[in-house]
Design goal:
Strand content: under 5%
Shape: globular
Mean pLDDT: 90
Largest sheet: none
Structural class: mainly alpha
Order of helices and strands: HHHHHHHHHHHHHHHHHHH
Distance between the termini: 70 Å
Length: about 475
């Protein structure tokens, strides 16, 4: 059964009071049903990242990261409806950015979408909205434990507008320059991972290093259980992230979903092997979780282009490379404590490069229309095209993110970073009222003890030395 065709004279798909707009999809409903379901599970990645980040942070700043996950999703939804979708996917876009043809969701309804004629445009719009939201959520990890919430949301709105949307247009819009090069990016190695990794690095660079005053909990996850739970939600959501990026329910989409699980699994193995030999034959739950995410990142651009066994290779290599870069922040002299750049930036670049080597037309053709081959098929030039994507997106994202952050930094009322005193007490105490992760009784006891020390001690210890007592070990809560 042939797909419906877009009619320029009725860009919305028709007047539903006059015609049955569903008739054009008769017999093809399973395609958009599958994609909208994939969108629903992609949404789980947003709180999953919040839980992951919250677990990796110290307890006194974990609540802020949970709150940001919901707020980023909300702000990005508004941005996407306002002009984000149009800037990325308007049919009359140029090679670098879209126009405002679909400003305010104009005519985004029942017509066949620009991404796939099997999907009503409203379904395609929702699915791509969630990609944008996940990407912005990854980016704000660069403000880890020291960034103010309101400026981070303003930055997220602007970053989605002038960084994510243009890069999405380059990569996935039929008029985009990378789309027509072509570079191969099945589900977002460039727009999602490389762009967010470099932007998070820029965020950490502009903010400067964290102050910790000898805090023993500095750089250590406060709750491994939250890290594990967040990773589980991310892994589950990634089935929709990659499995839906074929934008249809063909066999190619099923292979992409299978490859997603394979790469995440070999990512766990790869990172755990590195940990095992680096740390005296011992393992790490957090390391295994990071390995899963590295594998998911690596397979994102390749999921619909490679054989399952090569997906396993990609997941393993990406995780090993990321695990071996444990001291990357020290080498760069940038305090990017959430490892966003290492996992998403470096992992995305590795995955994109390997896509150029391992892509094969026998997999891409499973959707019945796409022929895309890489070095393994004798198309060696594809590796160079992937390198063009990597360098262009890396340079654009880091440079524009830095410029945007420096502009915001000097706008009155938009200072990006909390005060040193607020950082020592924790973002949760500084940015929220009557809420924290943990027991209020323990917090009150610590405040009482701090006051006693101020009265009885000739020299008052720094706040950080007292507050470190509030950090539980391995997620445990200290009781009287």
């Amino acid at each position: 059964m042939s797909a419906p065709e877009f009619n320029e004279t009725i860009p919305s798909g028709g007047d539903p009071t006059q015609i049955d707009v569903n008739a054009q999809y008769a017999g093809l409903e399973f395609h958009y049903t599958y994609i909208v379901f994939c969108g629903f599970i992609v949404w789980l990645i947003i709180p999953g990242i919040g839980l992951l980040y919250g677990g990796l942070a110290r307890r006194k700043s974990a609540l802020a990261l949970l709150f940001q996950s919901l707020m980023v999703g909300a702000v990005t939804t508004f941005q996407w409806m306002f002009w984000g979708y149009s800037l990325a996917y308007s049919r009359t876009a140029g090679p670098f950015i879209g126009d405002l043809k679909n400003f305010g969701m104009k005519n985004v309804m029942a017509a066949p979408s620009p991404g796939s004629a099997y999907l009503p445009e409203i379904v395609f719009c929702l699915y791509q909205l969630l990609f944008c939201a996940c990407t912005v959520q990854i980016v704000v990890g660069g403000a880890f434990e020291r960034g103010r919430i309101v400026p981070s949301l303003v930055f997220g709105f602007l970053w989605a507008t002038i960084v994510y949307c243009p890069i999405a247009c380059w990569t996935w819009n039929a008029n985009g320059w990378l789309y027509n090069l072509p570079s191969l990016d099945f589900a977002g190695g460039g727009p999602v991972h490389i762009a967010s990794g470099w932007a998070a690095l820029a965020y950490a660079f502009v903010l400067g290093k964290r102050k910790h005053a000898g805090d023993k909990a500095h750089g250590k996850p406060h709750n491994t259980t939250l890290v594990f739970l967040g990773t589980v939600l991310i892994w589950f959501g990634w089935f929709g992230f990659n499995g839906g990026s074929a934008l249809n329910a063909t066999v190619r989409a099923m292979v992409a979903a299978f490859n997603t699980n394979v790469a995440a699994s070999t990512g766990v193995i790869g990172w755990s092997v590195v940990d095992y030999f680096k740390h005296g034959r011992k393992f790490s739950v957090v390391g295994a979780c990071e390995g899963a995410i590295a594998g998911l990142v690596g397979i994102t651009p390749a999921a619909g282009y490679v054989e399952p066994w090569l997906a396993a290779v990609i997941g393993f290599i990406t995780a090993v490379v990321c695990a071996l870069l444990q001291n990357l922040n020290d080498w760069l002299h940038i305090d990017e404590g959430m490892d966003v750049f290492k996992l998403h930036g470096v992992g995305g670049m590795v995955g994109s490069f390997l896509t150029g080597i391992f892509a094969t037309s026998s997999i891409s053709a499973l959707d019945g229309v796409t022929i895309a081959s890489g070095g393994i098929d004798g198309n060696g030039i594809q590796v160079g095209k992937q390198f063009a994507e990597i360098t262009a997106i890396s340079a654009y994202s880091f440079t524009v993110s830095c410029i945007l952050l420096y502009i915001l930094k000097y706008i009155p009322g938009m200072h990006l970073r909390v005060t040193e005193d607020a950082e020592m007490k924790g973002l949760d105490h500084d940015q929220f009222f009557d809420e924290q992760i943990g027991d209020w009784g323990m917090y009150d006891e610590l405040e009482k003890r701090r006051m006693e020390l101020e009265i009885t001690s000739p020299g008052t210890p720094p706040v950080g030395e007292v507050s470190e007592l509030s950090e539980p070990v391995d997620g445990a809560v200290k009781k009287d």
